[in-house]
Structure formats: structure tokens, C-alpha cells
């Protein structure tokens, strides 16, 4: 086999390395399959402050994803990591619906990462006990390493609140769109695959619900609920594979130049 053939074979081997490793991704101890049919789909449990019907009020909350890429924590976190999250949202407007007492529509506002955002962390299970959620705090959820930081798009958050005239029966639903802005896994999820109502592509869409928690809750967070986040991830080649491919192609180019 001549030198040119060896270089071509090396280049093809590097490409094969990228293809075979690209189907599995791992960041900060969290693993998933970007080629999965469900790709980035997560569901989780959240705790939330009591929302009010005051314009420009801010609501914060936190929680953990129990399912990620159709895998439980034992699989996606290897039994030691869990994806926790925290969020802060400024509610910009409330519109009473049909004059019904305690029923209104609301819309969140995008005022940048500082006020309307969702952050996701890779957190040690030892620091966020998913078997005893009511004992966990916002500090527990934020104790990990930043996996993704996202901001709410200009489309904001749209939702419906129920029974706000009855403090112990408040409930609601909401949905919104998120744009990746930072985090260790940002390169994988900055994909712009979700279309928001303004016909602007976002990275994620989410839907959530909340209601008065029936049992013990963390201090200051009397509402609990669920959230589902949907998006897609890219395959990001390993740096070593990229280097091998570059070296192979460089050698091939030098060989051709020498022959000329």
C-alpha cells in the first residue's frame, strides 16, 4: 500500500470514529443518545412559589428531571447524577377571562437571562434527594454544575390560572419557549428546532402545570407540579476524532502537493 493510500485509509478511519462515537453523548456525568427517536424529551417535578395576580410579579421555582431521553436517573445519570433545574419568571400581564372570579390568562415577559430563564444543573444525587422531594431546597437544586442556561424567548410564557380567588385552591398551566445561551452542554442543544408563536425558531418548548401541594412542602414553595421539555440535540464529534480527521486530510493534501 503506498503512502497516499495509507493517508486515505487514515482519514476514513477518523470519519468512522466520529460516526461510531456520535450516537452517544455524555456531559458532566449525564449521558443520552442524540439519535434516539425521543432525543431531548424530559419530564420532571417542580416546586413553585405562590403566584399572584400582581403585574410584574416574579415567580421562582426548582425541581429535577426524573426522565431524560426516555431514560431514568439510574441510566442517564449513571446512578450518581440527576438533572436539576431552577427558574425565574417575571409575569408581565394578567387578563381576566369572561369576568369569572379567580380565572385569568397570563403571559410572561422576556427581559433577558437575569429575570426570565431556566437553568439546568448536573447535580450529585447525594445533594438532591429525589426520593424525598419535599425536603429539597432551591440551594440543593442549584448545587450542581451548570449543564444548560436558557432564556425565555420574546414569545414569553402563555398560560391559564384557576381558582385564584381561593388561596388554597390555586392551580394553573403554562407553556413557553427557551433559547440556549450557555452551559457545558450548550453546543449539543443550540439547535433551533422549535417554532414559537412569533415564527421564531427556539431550542426548546415546555409545558407545565401547578397546584396546591397536598402534603408537606419546602418553605416558601407551596405549589407543586410537573414540567415537560422538548427539543433536539446535535452530535458533537469528540475533539480527538476531529484532530485525527484533520491530520489525515492535512497529510493527504501535503502528499498531493508534493506529487505536483
How would you describe what is shown here?
The two termini are 20 Å apart. Residues 3-22 and 240-249 have low confidence and may be disordered. The strands form 3 sheets. Strands 3, 4, 5, 6, 7, 8, 9, 10, 13 and 14 form a 10-stranded antiparallel beta sheet that branches. A two-stranded antiparallel sheet has the order 1-2. With 260 residues, the chain is α+β, with helices and mostly antiparallel strands. 20% of the residues lie in helices and 42% in strands.
Query: Helix share of residues?
Result: 10-25%
Major sheet: 10 strands, antiparallel
Gap between N and C termini: 20 Å
Q: What letter string, H or E per element, gives the SSE order?
A: HEEEEEHEEEHEEHEEEEH
User: Hey, roughly how much beta strand do the residues contain?
Assistant: 35-45%
Radius of gyration: 23 Å
Number of strands: 14
Overall body shape: globular
Mean pLDDT: 76
Which regions are unreliable across 5 or more consecutive residues at pLDDT < 50? 3-22, 240-249
Q: Count of DSSP helices?
A: 5
Structural class: alpha+beta
Amino acid at each position: 500500500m503506498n503512502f497516499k493510500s495509507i493517508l486515505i485509509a487514515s482519514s476514513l478511519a477518523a470519519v468512522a470514529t466520529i460516526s461510531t462515537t456520535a450516537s452517544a453523548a455524555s456531559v458532566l456525568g449525564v449521558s443520552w443518545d442524540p439519535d434516539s427517536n425521543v432525543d431531548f424529551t424530559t419530564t420532571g417535578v417542580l416546586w413553585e412559589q405562590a403566584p399572584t395576580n400582581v403585574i410584574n410579579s416574579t415567580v421562582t421555582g426548582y425541581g429535577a428531571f426524573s426522565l431524560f431521553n426516555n431514560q431514568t436517573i439510574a441510566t442517564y445519570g449513571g446512578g450518581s447524577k440527576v438533572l436539576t433545574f431552577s427558574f425565574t419568571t417575571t409575569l408581565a400581564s394578567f387578563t381576566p377571562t369572561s369576568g369569572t372570579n379567580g380565572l385569568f390568562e397570563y403571559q410572561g415577559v422576556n427581559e433577558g437571562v437575569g429575570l426570565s430563564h431556566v437553568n439546568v444543573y448536573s447535580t450529585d444525587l447525594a445533594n438532591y434527594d429525589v426520593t424525598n422531594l419535599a425536603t429539597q431546597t432551591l440551594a440543593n437544586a442549584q448545587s450542581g454544575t451548570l449543564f444548560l442556561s436558557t432564556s425565555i424567548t420574546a414569545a414569553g410564557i402563555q398560560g391559564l390560572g384557576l381558582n385564584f380567588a381561593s388561596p388554597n385552591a390555586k392551580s394553573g398551566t403554562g407553556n413557553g419557549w427557551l433559547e440556549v445561551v450557555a452551559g457545558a452542554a450548550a453546543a449539543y442543544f443550540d439547535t433551533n428546532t422549535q417554532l414559537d408563536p412569533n415564527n421564531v425558531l427556539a431550542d426548546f418548548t415546555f409545558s407545565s402545570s401547578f397546584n396546591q401541594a397536598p402534603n408537606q412542602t419546602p418553605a416558601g414553595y407551596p405549589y407543586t407540579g410537573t414540567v415537560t421539555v422538548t427539543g433536539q440535540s446535535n452530535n458533537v464529534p469528540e475533539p480527538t476524532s476531529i484532530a485525527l480527521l484533520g491530520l489525515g486530510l492535512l497529510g493527504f493534501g501535503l502528499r498531493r502537493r508534493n506529487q505536483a
